[in-house]
Design goal:
TIM Barrel; alpha/beta; 13-stranded mixed β-sheet; 26% helix; binds iron/sulfur cluster; 387 residues; binds S-adenosylmethionine
Length: 387
């Protein structure tokens, strides 16, 4: 097993300046980066705090009572987030995901959801507004979030066995409360599509060897035919604190083999360009995909990099723009707004300039590196830039 690396440098203190180029870059919706990738998807981290201590994300030894979370004044306020989101939408973003940390810990999140849901896209297509949550507060919040305009939700759940789940969240949180949260989301109609199916309600399970591989089949059994899509995520080497090693990664191909021991699956086409999950449908007795049984997805960030189509930007809790989940530094958009009093045209130019220079493709490069040689010390934490 590799040793846990505790970073000596706090990456949050480092920032790249966001500058307004002398030649303005208009938000035409046609922006592309240096590898020809458009800007389509924006993840916004609304808090760096969480009530769980999942070992692969916010291990207790690091995120303890001495850990310095961002002070409230450093966080983007809802007006700043909405203002930036509008500029991103003008540049072509059509999907916004709120995340964290645990996004439902941010006070009055419904107000932000309402503001974002009211953003008009230039071509009139509706903005796809979604959120990733650990589900712990969903029973209380599902209805108000739906009423505020949230379309969809993804709940993270790493197992059905209560002991396994309590150990993984490391705060002894019971699995039944998350299942209640998922039920509340369904009752509220979160993720319900025009055909009466819950295509927008998803459950994500991070699979870690020696930890929850025995939960793959129980999870598949539980969600098969429920209308909820279960997706399995390969354990990733994000951040610098989780002690990641390749031995703990169960490749997605093996996840599919596990499920096929009990349920035949057929491969399905990707639903959209830039879609991170490979889709597999449950087959009926004739070996044909049966929509009533639903589908599973696998997100193979480690074994099959999907950087080529990556159209995703990340906005950190205090307003830095990150071009990759594995980036070491972000561009400081907050100081453009607070210090430099930038206009919206300036912000569009600055964001356009940054995106045009983007050449990040970490996972592709990692695939060509020797196992376990990827540098671990300088990356920012996922709880800070959002998963
Ligand atoms: N707290 C919320 C939650 O857990 O859904 C949102 C933030 S969390 C950082 C977003 C997603 O990242 C979760 O689905 C989580 O399981 C996933 N994640 C965190 N660390 C990961 C890792 N090392 N490898 C793969 N996925 C990870
Ligand atoms: Fe919290 Fe989500 Fe990270 Fe778990 S994965 S520690 S719930 S932010
Ligand atoms: Fe996108 Fe970076 Fe992940 Fe590649 S490694 S898919 S560029 S976020």
């Amino acid at each position: 097993m590799s040793e846990r690396v505790i970073p000596l440098v706090d990456q949050r203190l480092l920032a790249l300046p966001a500058t307004v180029p002398t030649q303005p870059i208009a938000a035409s919706g046609l922006l592309s980066d240096s590898l020809g990738r458009p800007l389509h998807d924006l993840r916004i981290s609304v808090t760096d705090r969480c009530n769980f201590r999942c070992n692969y994300c916010m291990p207790k030894e690091v995120f303890n009572k001495d850990y310095a979370y961002l002070p409230h004044g450093d966080l983007l306020n809802f007006e700043e987030i909405t203002r930036l989101a509008k500029v991103f939408v003008a540049h072509g973003v059509r999907k916004i995901r709120l995340t964290g940390g645990e996004p439902l810990l941010r006070k009055n999140l419904e107000i932000l959801v309402d503001q974002l849901a009211n953003i008009q896209t230039p071509d009139g297509t509706p903005l796809d507004l979604t959120l990733t949550t650990n589900g712990s507060l969903l029973t209380r919040k599902a209805k108000s979030l739906k009423d505020a305009g949230l379309n969809r939700v993804t709940v993270s759940l790493d197992g059905l066995d209560d002991a396994v789940f309590r150990a993984m969240n490391d705060v002894d949180f019971p699995v039944s409360d998350v299942l209640d949260g998922i039920a509340a989301a369904k009752d509220a109609g979160l993720g319900l599509d025009a055909n009466g199916l819950f295509t927008g309600l998803k459950v994500n399970m991070v699979v870690k060897r020696r930890t929850n591989v025995d939960q793959i089949l129980p999870m598949a059994r539980h969600f098969r035919g429920s209308g909820i899509t279960l997706r399995f995520i390969e354990y990733m080497d994000v951040g610098a604190t989780n002690g990641w090693c390749m031995d703990d990664v169960l490749p997605s191909a093996e996840v599919i083999q596990h499920i096929q021991q009990e349920f035949p699956l057929v491969s399905l086409d990707a639903s959209a360009i830039g879609e991170t999950a490979q889709r597999w449908g449950y087959a009926n007795a004739a070996g044909v995909f049966d929509p009533a049984l639903g589908e599973v997805g696998v997100i193979s960030s480690v074994t099959q990099a999907f950087c080529r189509d990556c159209n995703r930007a990340r906005l950190s809790t205090e307003g830095k723009l990150y071009l990759c989940l594995f980036a070491t530094q972000g561009y400081d958009l907050r100081s453009l707004m607070r210090g430099a009093q930038a206009t919206d045209v300036d912000l569009a130019s600055a964001i356009g300039h940054i995106w045009q220079g983007r050449d990040d493709r970490y996972s592709e490069l990692r695939a060509s590196m020797p196992v376990d040689s990827a540098p671990a010390v300088r990356r920012v934490e996922m709880s800070y830039i959002g998963g």
